[in-house]
Amino acid sequence: MLNKIADAVKNYEIDAIETYVSAALTSGVSAKEILDEGLVKGMDDIGRRFSSGEVFVPEVLMAANTMQAGMDLIREELIAFGDDQSKGRVIIGTVKGDLHDIGKKLVGMMFEGAGYEVIDLGVDIPAETFVEEAKNLDVDFVGMSAMLTTTMTEMKQVVDLLKAQNIRAVPLVGGAPLTAEFAASIGANYSHDAASAVDLIKSL
Protein backbone atom coordinates (compact mmCIF):
# COMPACT_ATOMS: atom_id res chain seq x y z
CA MET A 1 0.00 0.00 0.00
CA LEU A 2 2.89 2.38 0.73
CA ASN A 3 4.19 1.88 -2.80
CA LYS A 4 0.74 2.72 -4.15
CA ILE A 5 0.77 5.94 -2.13
CA ALA A 6 4.20 6.87 -3.47
CA ASP A 7 3.09 6.05 -7.02
CA ALA A 8 -0.07 8.13 -6.59
CA VAL A 9 2.06 11.15 -5.71
CA LYS A 10 4.38 10.53 -8.67
CA ASN A 11 1.40 10.13 -11.02
CA TYR A 12 -0.61 13.08 -9.62
CA GLU A 13 -3.55 10.83 -8.65
CA ILE A 14 -5.18 13.17 -6.16
CA ASP A 15 -8.41 11.14 -5.95
CA ALA A 16 -6.61 7.83 -5.49
CA ILE A 17 -4.30 9.16 -2.78
CA GLU A 18 -7.19 9.60 -0.37
CA THR A 19 -8.34 6.02 -0.97
CA TYR A 20 -4.86 4.57 -0.49
CA VAL A 21 -4.01 6.62 2.61
CA SER A 22 -7.36 5.81 4.24
CA ALA A 23 -6.90 2.10 3.47
CA ALA A 24 -3.40 2.15 4.93
CA LEU A 25 -4.61 3.80 8.14
CA THR A 26 -7.47 1.29 8.42
CA SER A 27 -5.07 -1.63 8.01
CA GLY A 28 -2.91 -0.36 10.86
CA VAL A 29 -0.08 1.38 9.01
CA SER A 30 1.20 4.27 11.12
CA ALA A 31 0.89 7.85 9.98
CA LYS A 32 4.67 8.20 10.19
CA GLU A 33 5.18 5.26 7.83
CA ILE A 34 2.63 6.69 5.41
CA LEU A 35 4.48 9.99 5.52
CA ASP A 36 8.03 8.70 5.16
CA GLU A 37 7.59 5.61 2.98
CA GLY A 38 4.67 6.84 0.90
CA LEU A 39 4.15 10.57 0.54
CA VAL A 40 7.72 11.82 1.00
CA LYS A 41 9.16 8.94 -1.02
CA GLY A 42 6.93 9.87 -3.94
CA MET A 43 7.74 13.57 -3.66
CA ASP A 44 11.47 12.85 -3.46
CA ASP A 45 11.23 11.06 -6.78
CA ILE A 46 9.44 14.03 -8.31
CA GLY A 47 12.19 16.30 -6.99
CA ARG A 48 14.86 14.19 -8.65
CA ARG A 49 12.96 14.14 -11.93
CA PHE A 50 12.49 17.90 -11.75
CA SER A 51 16.22 18.43 -11.22
CA SER A 52 17.05 16.26 -14.23
CA GLY A 53 14.53 18.00 -16.48
CA GLU A 54 12.16 15.05 -16.81
CA VAL A 55 9.22 16.96 -15.31
CA PHE A 56 8.49 20.67 -15.02
CA VAL A 57 6.78 23.12 -12.67
CA PRO A 58 3.16 22.15 -13.55
CA GLU A 59 3.87 18.48 -12.83
CA VAL A 60 5.63 19.29 -9.58
CA LEU A 61 2.67 21.39 -8.47
CA MET A 62 0.27 18.54 -9.25
CA ALA A 63 2.42 16.10 -7.31
CA ALA A 64 2.68 18.52 -4.38
CA ASN A 65 -1.09 18.99 -4.32
CA THR A 66 -1.55 15.21 -4.33
CA MET A 67 0.90 14.84 -1.47
CA GLN A 68 -0.90 17.58 0.45
CA ALA A 69 -4.22 15.76 0.10
CA GLY A 70 -2.61 12.72 1.71
CA MET A 71 -0.99 14.84 4.42
CA ASP A 72 -4.38 16.25 5.37
CA LEU A 73 -5.59 12.74 6.23
CA ILE A 74 -2.71 11.87 8.56
CA ARG A 75 -1.94 15.23 10.18
CA GLU A 76 -4.25 14.73 13.18
CA GLU A 77 -2.83 11.29 13.93
CA LEU A 78 0.73 12.58 13.74
CA ILE A 79 -0.11 15.31 16.24
CA ALA A 80 -2.21 13.05 18.49
CA PHE A 81 0.62 10.58 18.96
CA GLY A 82 3.26 13.25 19.31
CA ASP A 83 4.82 12.03 16.09
CA ASP A 84 5.60 15.46 14.73
CA GLN A 85 7.15 15.19 11.30
CA SER A 86 8.64 18.66 11.33
CA LYS A 87 12.39 18.80 10.81
CA GLY A 88 12.37 22.54 11.29
CA ARG A 89 10.27 25.66 10.86
CA VAL A 90 10.63 28.01 7.92
CA ILE A 91 8.88 31.19 6.87
CA ILE A 92 8.75 32.06 3.19
CA GLY A 93 7.64 35.17 1.37
CA THR A 94 8.13 37.34 -1.70
CA VAL A 95 10.00 40.52 -0.81
CA LYS A 96 8.56 44.04 -0.78
CA GLY A 97 7.67 45.41 -4.20
CA ASP A 98 7.35 41.98 -5.82
CA LEU A 99 4.06 40.12 -6.37
CA HIS A 100 5.31 36.89 -7.97
CA ASP A 101 4.52 33.77 -5.98
CA ILE A 102 4.39 30.63 -8.15
CA GLY A 103 8.00 29.72 -7.41
CA LYS A 104 7.60 30.54 -3.74
CA LYS A 105 4.52 28.36 -3.42
CA LEU A 106 6.29 25.50 -5.16
CA VAL A 107 9.26 25.73 -2.81
CA GLY A 108 6.91 25.84 0.17
CA MET A 109 5.11 22.70 -0.94
CA MET A 110 8.37 20.86 -1.48
CA PHE A 111 9.65 21.95 1.94
CA GLU A 112 6.48 20.52 3.48
CA GLY A 113 6.95 17.34 1.50
CA ALA A 114 10.46 17.06 2.92
CA GLY A 115 9.10 17.31 6.46
CA TYR A 116 9.44 21.00 7.34
CA GLU A 117 6.78 23.23 8.88
CA VAL A 118 6.15 26.10 6.47
CA ILE A 119 4.55 29.47 7.16
CA ASP A 120 3.87 31.40 3.95
CA LEU A 121 3.79 35.17 4.57
CA GLY A 122 2.59 35.94 1.04
CA VAL A 123 3.88 38.57 -1.38
CA ASP A 124 5.12 42.18 -1.12
CA ILE A 125 6.49 41.53 2.37
CA PRO A 126 8.58 44.30 4.01
CA ALA A 127 11.91 43.38 5.60
CA GLU A 128 10.57 44.31 9.03
CA THR A 129 7.76 41.78 8.69
CA PHE A 130 10.13 38.96 7.77
CA VAL A 131 12.23 39.72 10.83
CA GLU A 132 9.29 40.20 13.18
CA GLU A 133 7.73 36.89 12.14
CA ALA A 134 11.07 35.10 12.34
CA LYS A 135 11.41 36.30 15.92
CA ASN A 136 7.82 35.71 17.00
CA LEU A 137 7.56 32.25 15.45
CA ASP A 138 11.07 31.15 16.47
CA VAL A 139 11.84 29.85 12.98
CA ASP A 140 14.95 28.04 11.80
CA PHE A 141 14.94 29.46 8.26
CA VAL A 142 13.77 32.61 6.49
CA GLY A 143 13.08 32.03 2.80
CA MET A 144 12.87 35.03 0.46
CA SER A 145 11.82 35.10 -3.19
CA ALA A 146 12.24 37.79 -5.85
CA MET A 147 11.52 37.79 -9.57
CA LEU A 148 12.51 41.39 -10.27
CA THR A 149 16.05 42.76 -10.22
CA THR A 150 14.67 45.92 -8.63
CA THR A 151 13.45 44.03 -5.56
CA MET A 152 16.56 41.92 -4.94
CA THR A 153 18.01 44.62 -2.69
CA GLU A 154 15.16 44.02 -0.23
CA MET A 155 16.76 40.68 0.60
CA LYS A 156 19.88 42.37 1.94
CA GLN A 157 17.72 44.46 4.25
CA VAL A 158 16.19 41.30 5.70
CA VAL A 159 19.58 39.68 6.23
CA ASP A 160 21.00 42.84 7.83
CA LEU A 161 18.02 43.15 10.17
CA LEU A 162 18.27 39.49 11.21
CA LYS A 163 21.92 40.06 12.11
CA ALA A 164 21.24 43.36 13.87
CA GLN A 165 18.62 41.72 16.09
CA ASN A 166 20.70 38.59 16.69
CA ILE A 167 18.04 36.31 15.22
CA ARG A 168 19.53 32.90 14.53
CA ALA A 169 17.26 32.02 11.56
CA VAL A 170 19.23 31.06 8.45
CA PRO A 171 18.37 33.21 5.38
CA LEU A 172 17.52 31.42 2.13
CA VAL A 173 17.02 33.24 -1.20
CA GLY A 174 15.86 32.29 -4.66
CA GLY A 175 14.33 33.67 -7.82
CA ALA A 176 15.06 34.05 -11.52
CA PRO A 177 17.40 37.09 -11.38
CA LEU A 178 19.47 35.83 -8.44
CA THR A 179 22.89 34.22 -8.51
CA ALA A 180 25.00 32.38 -5.96
CA GLU A 181 27.40 35.31 -6.02
CA PHE A 182 24.66 37.77 -5.12
CA ALA A 183 23.46 35.55 -2.28
CA ALA A 184 26.98 35.25 -0.91
CA SER A 185 27.44 39.01 -1.08
CA ILE A 186 24.47 39.60 1.23
CA GLY A 187 25.20 36.67 3.54
CA ALA A 188 22.40 34.37 2.39
CA ASN A 189 22.12 30.81 1.04
CA TYR A 190 21.03 30.39 -2.58
CA SER A 191 19.16 27.74 -4.54
CA HIS A 192 18.37 27.98 -8.24
CA ASP A 193 15.18 25.89 -8.21
CA ALA A 194 12.70 24.18 -5.90
CA ALA A 195 14.45 20.81 -5.89
CA SER A 196 17.82 22.31 -5.00
CA ALA A 197 16.09 24.38 -2.30
CA VAL A 198 15.13 21.13 -0.57
CA ASP A 199 18.68 19.82 -0.83
CA LEU A 200 19.96 23.13 0.54
CA ILE A 201 17.69 23.23 3.57
CA LYS A 202 18.51 19.60 4.38
CA SER A 203 22.23 20.37 4.23
CA LEU A 204 21.80 23.30 6.59
Secondary-structure topology with pairs:
Blueprint: H1 2-10, H2 14-26, H3 31-51, H4 57-80, E1 89-94, H5 102-113, E2 117-120, H6 127-137, E3 141-145, H7 153-164, E4 170-174, H8 180-186, E5 189-190, H9 194-203
Parallel strand pairs: 1-2, 1-3, 3-4, 4-5
The coarse silhouette is: globular
Radius of gyration of CA atoms, rounded to a whole number: 17 Å
Share of residues in strands: 5-15%
Share of residues in helices: 55-70%
Strand count, sense and barrel status of the largest sheet are: 5 strands, parallel
In terms of per-residue confidence, which ranges show pLDDT below 50 for 5 or more consecutive residues? Answer: none
- The assigned structural class equals alpha/beta
Strand order of the largest sheet: 2-1-3-4-5
Number of helical regions: 9
How many beta-strand segments? 5
Give the N-terminus to C-terminus distance in angstroms.
Answer: 33 Å
The H-and-E topology, N to C, reads as: HHHHEHEHEHEHEH
Mean pLDDT: 90
Describe this structure in words.
The chain is an alpha/beta fold. The chain has 9 helices and 5 strands; from the N terminus they run ααααβαβαβαβαβα. Strands 2-1-3-4-5 form a 5-stranded parallel β-sheet, sandwiched between helices. Helix 8 links the parallel strand 4 and strand 5. The chain is globular and about 50 Å long. The two termini are 33 Å apart. The model has no long low-confidence stretch (mean pLDDT 90).
